[in-house]
Every structure is written in C-alpha cells, then in structure tokens.
C-alpha cells in the first residue's frame, strides 16, 4: 500500500503530497503532487500495474524534458543520418517551442496536435510539418527502445498528420526548354550543362552536384552514384546528349565534375528562371520532366525505376505525367 505524506515549506504551509510505493521486486517509487487526490490517483495506477506485471519505470521519462531529449538525439542519433544537417534545423525549431519544456511522460497527443496547429498558423507546409513530426516520433521510439523509457507512449501516433498536396505535375511546355537553357548559358554556361544532365538522366540535384570524374564512364555511357536519397548505390545510363555534354567539360584538379555547390546552384537557378519569366518552375521539376520522357520513349516501369532510383511504383507514379496528346498518337 502506498504511503501518502504531506509536504510543508519552511513556514509549515502545506505545499503538496508525496506518494511513496514500496513493493517487493520493484524499486521504490515516489512522486510529489499538488493535491492528495492526485497523489492517490498516481499511486493507485502504479500499484495496479505492479500487481498485473505491466509496470515500467517512469522515473527517467518523468524527469527528462523534451528539450533534453532533443539535445541527446542531436548528438547520438541524428549524426548517423544522411539528412543530419537539415534535421538539425528542425530539432532547433522543436527546442524553441513551449512543448520542449514539458517532460516526455507528460506529452499527449493533444499537445502535439496543438503544436501542429501552431506550425500551420506560421505558414509551414504540410510536408515540412510531416518532417518535424517524423523527428519527434523517432525520438520517442528511440527513448523507448534504447534509452530505458519503456513506459512512454508515442504521442505522434495519436495525431492526424497534415494532408499533403498532390504531387506536382509541372512539365516543360512549348519553347520553355530552349528559353531555360538560353537563360542558363547567360547566367553561367556550366548551369546550362547541369540542366541538360538533369533533363537527360532524371538525377536529383544533389546527385548531379556530387558527381566525380572517377565514377563517370563515358565509354560505357554510365555514371555511378554511391550516395543517393534512398541510400542505395545506383548506376545511371547516360544518353548521347548527356555524354556529349560531359565530353565538353574541362577536368578539375579535385576530381569533381562541377564547380557549383548546392547553395551556389540554387542561387544561379533562381537568377536564370527570372531571366526566362517562366512561371512556377523548380529544379526538381526537371526530374518530373525527365522521368516522363523515359516513359514516352517506351521504357517500362521497372526500367524507369532502375534509372531514376524510385523504390516503389506509387512514388514513381507521382513523377510521371505523360502528355495526353502523345498517348493518343500511340493509340492510333
């Protein structure tokens, strides 16, 4: 049976009640509450769990704030991920929110839902919020499995996720490709080469920027990608146009194909698109365009996925937007 003891301050004023549980086979448990009723309720639940053999030690979960857990996650878990840099910004965002001051054991689905609404009011997109929630969910999973906080319930599992908009279906139309390449050449000739490679190979921006000459085989018309978004090595075939583009490139001393960095490319891309006055075009849209062209050339889904690196057909479908007029011609 739990022992309930009143707690007084130095002036002998009642400030709360301490509940202490001693049961054979279990460590002593004690917790202080504002009222006697709260102390009794806690003790009743803990004793019941001990009797039924389902009790889990809550001490660490009840004494570790989300902020402290995030700091530990940032040191122990996040560095092992390829997305560590981007994830670190989201962790900083979480640490600055009121929920970060709460103890892990006290965080409920409602608290997470309130934070989601807070993010929505700030204008964060559904995808950005989903990435934030993914970090929080994984943190609770790690805390339960590896940090000895088995009593935790993952509050993210109790929250409705923001509905993501349908995938973009942006294709290059009319003379947009030529206008884009002309603007890229005017900005930086290398940018035009990168855009050509993107359209010819369906490679992601990071994959293109990471290309090195030792992994480019112009004779076999392939480029090997050791690091990809899904973590798997991939060998991408190069079209004649892609090979011709690379053949005209000077060789750098450091072995990299391009002088551009990710940030530098982003800046130049924005300038080039402004020159064209083309509306609503992102660099990633070139991957949509390239993937759709592969289908239009007659490649089957398995062949396309081996080129683009998509892991499942549903993801591949999001990037594939065939032109109806071209399909009509094939129908006869």
Shape: elongated
Fraction of residues in helix: 40-55%
**Largest sheet: spatial strand order:** 1-2-3
**CATH fold-level assignment of the largest domain:** hpI Integrase, Chain A
Name the CATH superfamily classification of the largest domain.
Intergrase catalytic core
**Number of structural units classed as domains:** 3
What's the gist of this structure?
With 332 residues, the chain is mainly alpha-helical. 50% of the residues lie in helices and 9% in strands.
What does this structure look like?
It is a single chain. The chain is mainly α. It folds into three domains: 3-55; 63-158, Tyrosine recombinase, N-terminal domain (DNA polymerase, domain 1); 176-331, Intergrase catalytic core (hpI Integrase, Chain A), CATH 1.10.443. It is 50% helix and 9% strand. It is built from 15 helices and six strands. The strands form two sheets. Strands 1-2-3 form a three-stranded antiparallel sheet, with helices on one face. The protein starts with a strand and ends with a helix.
Task: Based on the model shown, name its key terms.
DNA polymerase, domain 1; hpI Integrase, Chain A; three-stranded antiparallel β-sheet; 332 residues; mainly alpha; 15 helices; elongated
Layout of SSEs?
Layout: E1 3-8, E2 14-21, E3 29-33, H1 36-52, H2 59-63, H3 66-76, H4 84-95, H5 109-121, H6 126-145, H7 176-187, H8 189-201, H9 205-209, E4 216-217, E5 222-225, E6 234-237, H10 240-247, H11 262-276, H12 285-296, H13 301-308, H14 313-318, H15 324-331
Antiparallel strand pairs: 1-2, 2-3, 4-5, 5-6
